[in-house]
Design brief:
Elements: H1 8-14, H2 27-30, E1 64-66, E2 76-81, H3 88-97, H4 102-109, E3 118-123, E4 131-132, H5 134-144, E5 159-165, E6 170-171, E7 195-202, E8 205-213, H6 228-245, E9 258-261, H7 266-273, E10 290-295, E11 298-303, E12 305-306, H8 308-313, E13 318-319, E14 327-331, E15 335-341, E16 344-352, E17 358-367, E18 374-380, H9 384-388, E19 392-395, E20 398-401, E21 411-415, E22 419-420, E23 425-432, E24 442-451, E25 454-463
Parallel strand pairs: 2-3, 2-5, 4-6, 5-8, 16-25
Antiparallel strand pairs: 1-9, 7-8, 10-11, 12-13, 14-17, 15-16, 17-23, 18-22, 18-24, 19-20, 21-23, 24-25
The structure holds zinc ion.
């Protein structure tokens, strides 16, 4: 279930395509993620010894947990478009091509045991209606996947039935069974998510589907996306990889696939997605994670997706790395602290600092290749969006959400130097100013590392 916090509005600005978890996803409780043994230090990945560059040791990154449920091993992507969709031809090409790419699809899918994806298209005869709801989508799937000549082809549980909603059609915010009123068309799909995926049973067989809406251009501007087709393809890749890696966890009795970060790092999904779950698309939807993928004659934007393998190697936690140099500044967090979210308390990596006191921890800097020095900044998680360019802005004395009152930081930070390179250690003194109870006795923080146009993050927490 997607839990909403007062500052959810910011997520909409920062994150493309929030995936909506259904209210009935008790499967994530049934299949409680097994905390992975996240060792404190990743050994160098390069044997070195002959003068070769060696990434410096650093604490481990999170891992997305496999919960034993199905993944789509032989997926077929199905583009379902309305007759008046001006992007129909491009979406068809994209859908038929993307799943065969080595540099993008395979680079991500291998991590999840998902094979190459076939693609095909369904052309609806009619124009898009003025409004559309999740209930109508489900009814259309049931109608068109049954009977002697099913309109969408024979029912295929390896297919991801993807409905593209052109501009001008209002849509529900998300699945009705996730607590979104199906009749709520006023704000529309674009007010809270640009797309989502969900699953249902048709004739007793599991079916996964996705909805991708074309929203007003301003919503994509912060991702550097200026073309409508790029907006569609970027969001679609996000939904497709979430769907193929965890297709049916919403269905009663079905186990989750890849869903939820290891407990030690569950702070990450809460801070980045305001959800305890963590889906592979949501974990990599920053602006810098949107990249161009060159297909024959066409360049599309696609989204990087969480990669356990990349995270384990300590290079970049979103794939494909596309040749980019990985770099980050990782805090050494010695304690296991209680972190409360959504009524649950998890033990996460952190550092215990009683309110009113300070403690110094080390930041270990590493990169995958020689770089210029990058600048390092640490902020209270409420300032996250002030760093990433979201709805919060930095103001004198703290942050402000959409021009509202000043929210002073709960944590303050002092670094003994502002920048560094691979192998450097920065001493970071954290002062716990107050605990606002938002996450029980924990207060998350973000360490940002900025090199040129790229920024990398590491998320930690203070236990008060
Ligand atoms: Zn998502």
């Amino acid at each position: 279930m997607k839990l909403r916090l007062p500052f959810l509005a910011v997520v909409v600005l920062v994150g493309a395509a929030i995936s909506v978890q259904t209210a009935s996803c008790s499967s994530s409780d049934d299949a409680a993620p097994t905390p992975l043994e996240a060792g404190p230090v990743v050994p160098p990945t390069d044997g070195g010894g002959d003068g070769a560059f060696v990434p410096a040791d650093h604490p481990a990154f999170p891992q997305l947990v496999y919960n034993g449920g199905p993944v789509l091993k032989t997926p077929t992507l199905v583009a379902i478009t309305f007759a008046n969709d001006p992007h129909r031809a491009e979406l068809d090409t994209f859908t038929e091509t993307i799943g065969k790419t080595q540099a993008y699809w395979k680079a991500i899918a291998d991590d999840y045991g998902v094979g190459p994806a076939a693609g095909r298209s369904v052309h609806l005869a009619g124009n898009a209606p003025a409004t559309i709801s999740d209930t109508q989508i489900r009814a259309a799937l049931t109608t068109n996947l049954t009977g002697p000549t099913p309109g969408y082809g024979a029912l295929d549980s390896q297919a991801v039935y993807t409905f593209f909603i052109p501009a001008g059609t209002a849509g529900a915010k998300g699945p009705a069974d996730a607590g979104y009123p199906d009749s709520d068309m006023a704000a529309g799909l674009c007010s809270e998510a640009y797309g989502y995926h969900d699953s249902m049973l048709v004739n007793g067989q599991p079916v996964v589907y996705a909805i991708v809406a074309l929203c007003p251009p301003a919503l994509y501007a912060s991702f550097g996306i200026t073309k409508a087709i790029d907006a569609l393809t970027a969001v679609t890749t996000h939904e497709w990889f979430e769907a193929v890696s965890d297709p049916f966890s919403h269905l009663p009795g079905s186990k989750a696939g890849f869903y939820g970060l290891d407990e030690l790092h569950s702070t990450w999904s809460v801070v980045r997605d305001h959800s305890q779950a963590g889906e592979n698309g949501d974990l990599c939807h920053e602006a810098a994670d949107h990249i161009d993928l060159v297909l024959p004659n066409i360049t599309y934007k696609v989204q990087r997706i969480w990669s356990n393998q990349e995270a384990k190697l300590g290079r970049h936690y979103c794939a494909p790395a596309n040749g980019a140099t990985a770099f980050n500044s990782v805090p050494v967090l010695p304690d296991r602290i209680p972190f409360t979210f959504g009524g649950k308390t998890l033990m996460v990596e952190g550092v215990t600092i009683p309110v009113g006191t300070s403690k110094t921890v080390e930041l270990k800097l590493f990169s995958s290749a020689p770089t210029e020095a990058w600048t390092v900044e640490a902020v209270d998680s409420l300032s996250y969006d002030a760093v990433t360019g979201g709805g919060y802005t930095a103001v004198t004395g703290g942050v402000s959400l959409d021009g509202g009152p000043v929210i002073p930081p709960r944590l303050t930070f002092a670094l003994d130097k502002p920048s560094g390179v691979n192998g450097d250690v920065i001493k970071m003194t954290i002062t716990a100013v107050k605990n606002d109870g938002r996450y029980g006795k924990a207060t998350p923080f973000i360490v940002g590392s900025k090199l040129g146009k790229e920024t990398r993050y590491y998320i930690g927490a203070v236990g008060n």
